[in-house]
């Protein structure tokens, strides 16, 4: 039986014009039950915003956590993406990557913080993404360490460009990273070929540990699909807000 309480929620849609992207970008913003502008809330910024809401069911999961398990209420910001240019924006060697991360940090973040009661402290901001969304979330934190210090990666595409970036970094003890990888992700087909994401995440884990990242790493049976990530989201969110 469907619990109607979980679907009586507030999700606001916004459009933001970006000079860096030379286009507009859609946002969907979940406001927790009892949202009050006088208060302030931690915030999760999700890449692939539409998929996090529709396939990940992150708003439903957060509502259930708040109402049934006493989680700290949080705002969720889903940043939508055009799938046709997703790789060029999310991949660190993509032609639109720099423009995207500048949009995210220099335009989208101030826009949200000017309109909603989110906490403007890097310890209260979480970046979340799946696959290349996990990749761009990590690169955002590495590029803007004064803005972001907490990242959730669901089967991150931590391929050679990302590992090279990690090699070049100094001490990363300021960074908190949750990594999930499915053990059935040894042959993931992408626009740029087929890759072993299990090996890529294990190699990245070793680099991250060398750099003193506060790392929570999990390997579980699972494929490179939302069916896997959706089932894991409640436990992941509980780690941050439970």
List the helices and strands and how they pair.
Blueprint (H helix, E strand, L loop, with lengths): L9 E9 L4 E9 L11 E4 L2 H6 L3 H12 L5 E5 L6 H5 L6 H19 L9 E6 L1 H12 L6 E5 L5 H9 L7 E7 L5 E3 L2 E3 L1 H14 L3 E7 L5 H16 L1
Parallel strand pairs: 3-4, 3-5, 5-6, 6-7, 7-10
Antiparallel strand pairs: 1-2, 2-4, 8-9
Helix pairs in contact: 2-8, 6-7
Share of β-strand residues: 15-25%
Number of helices: 8
Structure classification: alpha/beta
Distance between the termini: 25 Å
* Strand numbers in spatial order across the main sheet: 1-2-4-3-5-6-7-10
Largest sheet: 8 strands, mixed
Number of strands: 10
Backbone shape: globular
User: Mean of the pLDDT scores?
Assistant: 96
Radius of gyration: 17 Å
Q: How many domain units?
A: 1
Percent helix: 25-40%
| Helix-strand sequence | EEEHHEHHEHEHEEEHEH
- CATH architecture annotation name: 3-Layer(aba) Sandwich
Q: Using the coordinates shown, work out and report the CATH topology.
A: Rossmann fold
Tell me what the structure shows.
The chain has about 240 residues and is α/β, with parallel strands linked by helices. It has one domain: 3-Layer(aba) Sandwich (Rossmann fold), CATH 3.40.50.1820. Helix content is about 40%, strand content about 25%. It has helices at about 50-55, 60-70, 85-90, 95-115, 130-145, 160-170, 195-210, 225-240, and strands at about 10-20, 25-30, 45, 75-80, 125-130, 150-155, 175-180, 190, 195, 215-220. The strands form 2 sheets. An 8-stranded mixed β-sheet has the order 1-2-4-3-5-6-7-10, sandwiched between helices. The protein has a two-stranded antiparallel sheet with strand order 8-9. Helix 2 (about 60-70) packs parallel to helix 8 (about 225-240) and helix 6 (about 160-170) packs parallel to helix 7. The longest helix is centred in the middle third of the chain and has 19 residues, at about 95-115.
């Amino acid at each position: 039986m469907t619990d109607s309480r979980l679907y009586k929620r507030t999700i606001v849609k916004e459009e933001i014009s970006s000079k860096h992207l030379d286009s507009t970008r859609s946002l969907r913003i979940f406001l927790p039950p009892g949202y009050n502008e006088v208060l302030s809330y931690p915030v999760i910024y999700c890449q692939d915003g539409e998929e996090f809401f529709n396939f990940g069911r992150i708003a439903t999961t957060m509502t259930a956590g708040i109402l049934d398990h006493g989680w700290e209420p949080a705002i969720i910001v889903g940043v939508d993406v055009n799938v046709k240019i997703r790789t060029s924006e999310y991949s660190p060697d993509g032609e639109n990557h720099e423009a995207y991360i500048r949009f995210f940090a220099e335009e989208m973040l101030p826009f949200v913080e000017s309109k909603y009661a989110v906490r403007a402290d890097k310890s209260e901001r979480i970046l979340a993404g799946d696959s290349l969304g996990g990749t761009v979330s990590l690169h955002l934190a590495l590029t803007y360490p004064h803005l972001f210090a907490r990242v959730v990666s669901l089967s991150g595409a931590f391929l050679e460009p990302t590992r090279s970036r990690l090699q070049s970094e100094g001490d990363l003890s300021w960074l908190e990273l949750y990594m999930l990888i499915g053990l059935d992700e040894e042959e993931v087909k992408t626009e740029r070929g087929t890759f072993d994401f299990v090996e890529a995440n294990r190699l990245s884990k070793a680099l991250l540990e060398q750099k003193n990242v506060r790392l929570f790493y999990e390997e579980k049976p699972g494929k490179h699909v939302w069916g896997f990530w959706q089932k894991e989201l409640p436990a992941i969110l509980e780690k941050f807000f439970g």
